[in-house]
Design goal:
By secondary structure, the chain is mainly alpha-helical. The chain is built from 10 helices and no strands. Keywords: DNA-binding.
Length: 204
């Protein structure tokens, strides 16, 4: 088989345009609610042109999820077992909150996939994600046993961090509606509040 030709600059740009449009549509409509016609309109391309680059809606969705999951795991991978426990955990909270601020569509894409049964990412959840969480939970449990942080269930601590940080992306409209337009950036207030909350929870 002959090797495929490298993509031209226009082809690379069109792929990026399609994936950007698909991310918008999937994050708003979910996988089941999204259509190729919606994505094509958002991308400003014809449906046949869309299908030249991606053979199906599934192919676009899988491409987005594959890129997202690596990004999603990075903040947890950055937690240093040799670091100061409270600083490492608060640093993880901060990084997760920054992800919600900087990647809200990706957060909603992930949430929609989970809510719809995680058919396309279950192997990653049960494999790579579970292994990483198991390793991190063991580190946190070790810190608690050594008295370096307060006793805490490490898995539920991680779940709490996910819930309290991703809320600001997944429920952004609700957060901003309740706070009102005259309030500060919700992420600045959230950063201070969550640091105080977890510091009080975990201080030995």
């Amino acid at each position: 088989m002959k090797p495929s030709h490298p993509r031209t600059r226009i082809q690379r740009r069109n792929r990026e345009t399609i994936l950007e449009a698909a991310l918008d549509v999937f994050s708003q409509q979910g996988f089941r609610g999204a259509t190729l016609d919606q994505i094509a309109r958002k991308a400003g391309l014809s449906k046949p042109n869309l299908l030249y680059y991606f053979p199906s809606k599934e192919a676009m969705h899988e491409t987005l999820l594959a890129g997202l999951l690596d990004t999603w795991l990075a903040p947890l991978r950055a937690l240093d077992p040799e670091g100061e426990p409270l600083d490492e955990i608060l640093g993880y909270v901060h990084r997760k909150l920054l992800m919600s601020r900087d990647f809200p569509r990706e957060s909603r894409l992930f949430a929609n996939e989970i809510l719809q049964g995680a058919e396309r990412i279950r192997p990653t959840l049960e494999g790579e994600l579970k292994s990483l969480v198991d390793e991190t939970a063991a580190v946190i449990a070790g810190w608690a046993r050594a008295g370096r942080i307060a006793p805490v269930d490490p898995y539920h601590l991680i779940f709490s961090i996910w819930a309290l940080t991703q809320h600001y992306a997944d429920f952004d409209v609700q957060v901003r509606a309740v706070l009102g337009e005259d309030k500060e950036d919700p992420f600045e207030g959230a950063d201070r509040h969550l640091a105080m909350l977890f510091r009080r929870l975990l201080a030995p």
